[in-house]
Amino acid sequence: MGDHGAVTPEPGPEPRPESRPGAVPGSPAPLDVEALRRDTPGTAFGIHLNNAGAALQPAAVLKAVHDHLQAETELGGYEAAAARADEIAGAYRSVEELLGARQGSIAFTENATVAFQQALSSIRLAPGDRILTSRQDYVSNQLMYLSLAERLGVEVERAPDAPEGGIDVGAVREALIRRRPRVVALSHIPTSSGVVQDAGAVGALCREHGVPYILDACQSVGQMPLEPESLGCSFLAATSRKFLRGPRGAGFLWVSRQALKDGLVPLFPDLRSADWVEEDLWQPAPDASRFENWEFSWALVLGTGAAAEVARATGLEAIRDRARSLAHRLREGLGGVRGVQVLDRGRELAAIVTITVEGWRPSDLVRHLRERSIRTSSVDRSSAVIDYDERGIPAALRLSPHAYNTEDEIDEAVEALRHAASFPRESA
């Protein structure tokens, strides 16, 4: 299908090493930050340190979304999807390859919350069943657990944190043996702190005990290499808009072979996910598409596929190492600023930095920094009730660099916060 008159953007990152003549298979390509920035138009409009919220999209994502919307304009929505069926199938495969996953294991959804809901709804819960989770699970997930407790009489058990931060794996083992939960659910990287929870160790325990395991990888997909099979999860839910750098309003769910074999299906299937066979008989789709809905944006699916290709071409190890290096630079710089408290703790820290600044409400800091073309976000207590109540803080400022950020941008953000800390606001 042609590009319908779309302007061709600058080319993206170089192909992966194994696709270039003479390259050693599996060897990482050196990360060309300037090339990443040339391929990311938004870097010209300020310092973007809100990648944990929504990252800057590369040119290939913009083109993929634009081209499909142009096709819908010219052909109609149904006809454009039919005409671009090969490209749509390629988007599925791109996300599967990003995760080292088999064909037919990805379901596209409207967002990560819908993906998580679909997975959780497939677990047949009854009064007295237990959901085992962490104290730092994402707020929307926590709300789902509480709703299920209220409606179905299930129990919500939260494993304690280890002294160094992150879920206590030993406590998870104990709970699996003594409490026999019906399902385990975990946020890999919480939205409210930079800790990377030990998802693989939890997954190994769930496999050992035969318990379904749902992993929320919203903040880790696109930020670091992930292989759901090796993590031991039954489902992995993710979004497109964060570190993966895809469009907003798109997400996906990875589904394990075992989940399909066990006949897990969402509570509310539709004509995309199942067939109505006879008057009182229905049959779910044989693959991960049983977790999809009929109506969602194919333009955003194609944009997500393009984002997955860019991430693979750039190299997930290289993205992880650079983003975490920049986050470490932030923590080191801010740790020496009077009045600034760096909140992150854990054996492994990701590219999310959370801080408080004495005399400032984090929401006011977001606006203050935005006036200086530094984009951040804040997390308030309602998104991290347990964690923030324990720390005695009402909210935190969140800074989340990506591989396309520069050291100079990090230093400029540190200096802006150093200056803010010297002039606390009365309103705080």
Describe the structure.
- The model is unreliable at 1-28 (pLDDT under 50).
- The protein has 2 domains: 85-312, 3-Layer(aba) Sandwich (Aspartate Aminotransferase, domain 2); 316-422, Aspartate Aminotransferase, domain 1, CATH 3.90.1150.10.
- By secondary structure, the protein is an alpha/beta fold.
- Strand 3 (130-134), helix 6 and strand 4 form a beta-alpha-beta unit.
- It has helices spanning 33-38, 59-75, 77-83, 85-98, 112-121, 139-152, 169-178, 199-209, 228-231, 257-261, 298-314, 316-335, 362-370, 385-391, 407-422, and strands at residues 47-48, 106-109, 130-134, 155-159, 183-187, 213-216, 235-239, 251-255, 274-278, 281-284, 340-342, 353-357, 374-375, 377-380, 395-399.
Quick description:
The chain has about 425 residues and is an alpha/beta fold. It has 15 helices and 15 strands. It is globular, with a radius of gyration of 22 Å.
Question: Strand arrangement, largest sheet?
Answer: 2-8-7-6-5-3-4
Kindly name the structural category: alpha/beta
Q: Total domains, how many? A: 2
Radius of gyration: 22 Å
CATH fold label of the largest domain: Aspartate Aminotransferase, domain 2
Give the biggest beta sheet: 7 strands, mixed
DSSP helix fraction: 25-40%
CATH top level of the largest domain?
Alpha Beta
Task: Give the key terms.
four-stranded antiparallel beta sheet; 428 residues; single chain; alpha/beta; disordered N terminus; globular; 15 strands; seven-stranded mixed beta sheet; Aspartate Aminotransferase, domain 1; Aspartate Aminotransferase, domain 2
